[in-house]
Amino acid sequence: MTTTETKPRIVVGVDGSQGSEDALRWGAHYAELIGADLDALIAWSLPEIYSYTSRDYAADARATLTRSLQRALGPDRAKRVTVHVVEGHPATALTALCPGAQMLVVGKQGHGGFAGMGLGSVSHHCVSHACCPTVVVPGTIPR
After folding, report:
1. pTM here?
2. CB neighbour class for 47 (10 Å; exposed up to 12, middle 13-18, buried from 19)
3. For residues 23 and 73, is the Cβ–Cβ distance under 8 A?
4. Which residues lie across from 80 on neighbouring strands?
5. Strand 134-137's sheet: what is its strand order?
6. Which of 27, 32, 104, 113 has the lowest tally of Cβ within 10 angstroms?
């Protein structure tokens, strides 16, 4: 790699679900195999029915991401991940982060999925709109 080349980057979508933690494990393993950096993104937004509250939704999302990183990767590997906490729809945030990435990794379904469905709405959007190859992790990935 010359000094003008950048290290490959893998982007993983996280929402705290088992599926997103499986995607984290898969993405981290692949990143290690190719010597890539790992970016993990969680998106948050205000609830549709919102009343003024002192709740910090961004901090809640960051805490969810931190817990998922710890569970999926363990403390040492989790420290090496670049985290992104973004306000907005997860599919839009993920496709906005993927330019320049080697790959985008998402779980088959997150918290919004219905049992028995194929792809969730976020994974479907990412497969259809990402500017890099997209991997949809279908199920449990062992540690």
Report:
1. 0.87
2. exposed
3. no
4. none
5. 82-87, 37-44, 9-13, 103-107, 134-137
6. 32
Q: Can you tell me the distance from the alpha carbon of 99 to that of 102, in angstroms, rounded to the nearest whole number?
A: 9
- And the tokens for 121? 């709405």
Q: In the numeric block, which tokens belong to residue 5?
A: 């080349």
Show the CA angle centred on residue 34, arms to residues 71 and 22, nearest 5°. 25
The tokens for 72 are 């999926």
Q: How many residues does the chain have?
A: 143
> In tens digits, what is the pLDDT along the chain, a chain of 143 residues?
555 578 999 999 999 999 999 999 999 999 999 999 999 999 999 887 766 778 899 999 999 999 999 999 999 999 999 999 999 999 999 999 999 999 999 998 654 544 444 457 899 899 999 999 999 998 776 66
